[in-house]
Amino acid sequence: MMSSHLTWMIIRNNNAYLLKKRNIKKPFSTEPNNLNNLSSYRYSGLIHKKSVGVVAAPDNKGFTVVYKKSRSSYKPAKSVVKRTMKAGPRRSLYKLKRLLRANKYRTDLTKFLCIAGSFTQSQCSVEVTEATTN
Amino acid sequence: MSLSAARPLISIYNDKNEPLGTTVALPAVFKAPIRPDIVNFVHDNMAKNHRQPYSVNKDAGHQTSAESWGTGRAVARIPRVRGGGTHRSGQGAFGNMCRGGRMFAPTKPWRRWHRRININQKRYALVSAIAASGVPALVMSKGHLIQDIPELPLVVDDKVQEYSKTKQAVVFLRRIKAWADIQKVYKSRRFRAGKGKMRNRRRIQRRGPLVIYGQDQGLTKAFRNIPGVDLINVSKLNLLKLAPGGHVGRFVIWTQSAFSKLDELFGSWRKTSKLKKGYNLPMPKMANTDLTRLLKAEEIRSVLRAPIKQKRSVKKLNPLTNTRAMLRLNPYAAVLKRKAILTSLQSRRKRQELLAKKRGITLEPTAAEARARKLQEQRRAAIQKAKAEKAKKPKVEKEEKPTPGKEGKKAKTPAKGDKTPVKGAKAPGKGGKAPAKGAKAPGKGGKAPAKGGKAAAKEAKVLGKEAKAPAKEAKAPAKEAKAPAKEAKAPAKEAKAPAKEGKAPAEETKKVAEGSPKK
């Protein structure tokens, strides 16, 4: 019913997650499923039927991909799917890529998912430094 | 958004957050055009309607009999207070610039405080606000925490209308997962910034969910003490509650009777409203607002002319500094460069060797040399082992044929990337494989017994049991192989490959023992 374009036009200058900072022209967004935290049509996590987000996994081992099921957009409780990737950095990135490519899910966002990889990178580097000190 | 659009069915939930099974068709209101501009305008004007007049005292500043002293007295010409004996005498009066004078344009109580708004505009705004409350994106953008609610619009059984205790109301909100929104209200409680504090507007908080009911059977009293919750009767919908702040998208909880009344109240485009005389929902400007689909639609594309593609100027890259540009022009340059690098390395190495000779030092072998040597040694060892085991067990000639080719292939693939860990994995892998299979060749030679057929399968069963013991050996070194593989910066696939090789024989012997054909 509500196309993403329409909702964007309503929301773009006016929403709870909008973040404007001095001297920076493009506003940021604090939405949970926004991959690069910019407030823009493409990266918005709320508007589209399909959206992807990356969160650190609960026990800090790897990350969780959170994505929306396109069918249940009117049922917020059911529309979210979580998949935890626990493997090391490169492997889980590969898995992520595969997950999205195979389903042709928001292929315009794949670049920004590499930033998700930085999650796991930073986690891995912590483990490595611990090992070396031990 | 189209007028003929199908009306989806909304399920009704009972107070325990289970779908009742009954469904209602979405009232047409929810498909009305959402016009935030109209909502804002109407909200602005409506909000002015509950203002109380303020003004200054009408006598303020005029309760003096001051008169100007005129010219010639070396003072400014403002009216001054008459008489003597006080500070006040001789002071200026009446002017807005004077201390104690009246203000400029003293505020009057007959200022036009209230605004009237056209009924149709009011209804349009209301309808837009209702429609917006059914869009999860808009409600979430407004800041309401609705991540866990079952459906939007949220329709609840009429039992809720009979609640009389706040406790019941709280439990209900918790079950429906609306409590997160109310917790947000709790957290947002703060003091107002500014003078409002001393004007009886001390505390402020966020807005929570809005409960719209059909009939109040105690509901209001149950819910009213919960912070943030507002309650309205369907027949008296209020834009100020549906779009607080002039922004659409409030979180609304409907009761079943309220929801069903919406169609009567607002009509659908095919039928006028029953309760509002002659009223029909506003017509949207665009029936289909999905731009991406429109732009790709055949009906539109077939009428467009071909796009004029502008050739963009490509930045020129200097081939002398940019290797890829060079390769584009002259692919042979890669060969030349490589040769140059290798020869320089070699000549450097030679010089070092000469020096070493002179000084009588033995140099460490280069990485490449070391690798090559290791490879050779391992190969030699593997071959000898294989020979030794072949000598022990009987040969089956058929199965030997396909193997050498595959062996050769396998030998090549690990040649890429970091060789040492891979080779390390291969050696024990081979060692593990050989006793298990004997005549059956290592690695992908596992396919061969499948070709061999039943006879092979039988043999496999016999060998399979024996295979388990050495297979364990195969596993142990395979694990070792994994460790260095991780450290090595080989890509993940290749790191897995040797591990697979190490595991493969163990897995394959088991599978072959089961008689399954191919991997």
Automatic annotation (TrEMBL), chain B:
GO biological process: translation
Keywords carried by this UniProt record: Ribonucleoprotein, Ribosomal protein
Region (Disordered): 366-519
Domain of life: Eukaryota
Annotated Basic and acidic residues bias: 370-421, 456-519
Residue ranges occupied by any Large ribosomal subunit protein uL4 C-terminal domain in the UniProt entry: 277-347
A GO MF term: structural constituent of ribosome
GO cellular component, one term: ribonucleoprotein complex
Compositionally biased intervals (Low complexity): 422-455
Family annotation (Pfam families): Ribos_L4_asso_C, Ribosomal_L4
Recorded family membership: Belongs to the universal ribosomal protein uL4 family.
Annotated protein name in UniProt: 60S ribosomal protein L4
